[in-house]
Amino acid sequence: MTLKRIGQQEIVLGIFVVLFVAFALFLPGFATTANMLTLLQNVAVLGILGLAMALVVIGRGIDISLIAALAVPPGLVLQMVQDGHSLPVSIAAALALALVFGLLNGWLIAYAEVPSLFTTLATGLFLAGLGQAALFKLDVVQWSEGMSGFERLGQGSLLGIPTPIIAFALVCVVVALLLRQTRIGAYIYAIGDNPFGARVTGIPSRPIIVLQYVLAALIGCFAGLVLASSVNSMPTRIFNSTMIYDVILVVVLGGIGLSGGRGGVFNVIIGTLLIGTMLNGMTIMDVSYSGQNLIKGVILLIAVIIDSFLNPRNEETAQQGDI
Amino acid sequence: MTENVVEFRKATKLYAGVPAIEGVDFQLRRGEIHALVGENGAGKSTLTKALSGVVTLTSGQLFVDGVEVSPKTPLEARHLGIAMVFQENSLVPTMTVAQNLFLGQEHFYNRLRGIYIAAQQFLQSLNFDVPPTTTVGLLGAAKKQMVEIARAVLHKAKVIIFDEPTATLTPEEKAYFFDLVRDLKKRGVSVIFISHALEEALLLADRITVLRDGKHVVTDDVANFDRAKIVQAMVGRDLSNTLYGTRKSTVRSAGERILSVQNLKMAPMVKNNSLSVFAGQITGVFGLVGAGRTETFKIVSGVLKRDFFHGGEVLLRGRPVRYRVPAPAVKAGVAYVTEDRKVEGFFETMSIARNVYLGLLAKFPGGRFILSNRESQQTGDNWISRLKVRAISPKAKVVELSGGNQQKVVIAKSLTQEPDLIIFDEPTRGVDVGAIVEIHELINRLADEGKAVVVISSYLPEILALSDRILVSRQGKVVEEFSALDATEEKIMYAAIH
Q: Domain locations in chain A?
């Protein structure tokens, strides 16, 4: 029992420390200030997405459409500003888009009872297609004059700490408070632990599930704004990348069981640190893109296998189509 | 050939250092029906799991036909001639009976006509009335069990283990099942029969073994046992009088009419059902499996939805209500304590306190956006002492508790919502004898406090011991009502059987 208590998250933390020290000692260019900033910035966006995913996974779902929520609403901000709208109006429009998108996901999953994996697979594709077909003129939406000042969200710093890190920390605190200290958090864990039990207890399961996907979409949108402002553009083709695997990797490797009801923000943080360090190290070592995918694939596979050993699915409350 | 087809010597199985069975000696004779009884956690399941290859013994020996063996997988056990019949979940529901029978033994070219003919002949030779071309998912519980038994016989099993085989069967089906088991015995098959229903063990078995706390207590011919003696051996104290024995001499009078159900319909289980429930008394609802009792009360509490058109009416304190989810029903003071606590009851990764606290939050969210750990703790402590939940600490996870204590947690979760109408669906299923008494006392106390209490049970002694008023349900509606004073087992059963 005590062995299990030090379990997965401590192991992952240990691996992270070992990896970080090894890279710092043996990899020239890793332990430089410039590289640390790149690493932290990449980690920040991934971490924010990981938090969004964690909210959903703890409630026994999965949100594959997060990358679409990351790319399209922030892309809309850049596009609208380019077209001459004011920044606040554009941001409001993007948040409204993310909100509607989250509501759509949540409604389909909670009320129409379509399994979350298939729902978000389809809605993500739909939103990305909508963005590319109807909203954006180019695949990479460029920064324009009207956006000036906003890049500080991605490139500024506060007390020497880059703002993306602060943004990540902020979302961490908000999500941690939500999960651990509020009624909604308790409901999310209850639904993830036993959805039928939660329902019979009188917990408003369906509104809570909708809320999870709305929050995920909004957090995803926020991550997108951080990303766009740090690279001064919104490369909407990011939807076609393998980023969603990184996000799932962060969540699973960090120790949030895919069977629901387990884990928390701390797991996302350590998962993020490990994946961030690994990706950064591989880039410096000049591992090819395909090589990186291979390594990530193997690690994700191992993580999922370990997860299904440590957190076995409860056969009795499992539903068909569950992840 | 030895006399004993199966023999355990000093069998011990440790789970994380804790013995589930300890030094158990057990012999199964050729061609006998051997009942294995004991409270939950007595080690019955572990012993049979060791025999059927699901777990391996930590120490001790297992002999099959006098040869020492140690099956490590169910397949190895099957090759030794040992089959375990699970309730119904080892069949593939979308396949036909014949396909299920021959599953895993198909020829490379799997000719359906061939297996249908073979299955037909085989089932007829067993005198089983199951059409081989039917899809298993469409069969009732009893027929599914027949298919399971047929498969075990087809695999040339020498020993068949039944774990709680009669839990889902109606009395008629039970009688038929007993005949099947006796027929197996005639074929020289040895049967191990695990059951909570002591009458069944007394009726069916040749010998009975009682286990308690992982240890062997007694094995003897059935003639040397009676109900009280078994119960005494199971718990080590005489509970037979307090448990189900006493009949009521007085009944509580009806208070306000809390619930009135009129012409309720939900295809195909509930047909034109009408009934009333009053405050301050216990309304027992008896019926055979498939009588629509659970469904009716799940509709009342919003767990299920009734038919949209001509669905009938549910009146709560005279006001028509229609709940599509349980949440508004909970808010209105209706609590449904499920018959299946693992699926609809507790949250297994959470503590006792958090389980109960979630019930409180669901009913009285009030201004609580931020949770209070102190309130959670207090709620937990309060209910643990009120319901005498036995756990190491309130922080213990519910999954680690025994069946009876889990049931108490589920009940506490509902009672903390201060309901006016409490529906207990099979409140003592899978609950150990000691906890049954405590749960029954609790149910009586609730009625004394003036709550409207409904107890759904398939167990006649439980209905008779608890109810002030007895409703008998048959084929989707209530067909008869008795006062507890003039109800007898015969009268109730007569009304319940179609």
A: 9-20+29-308
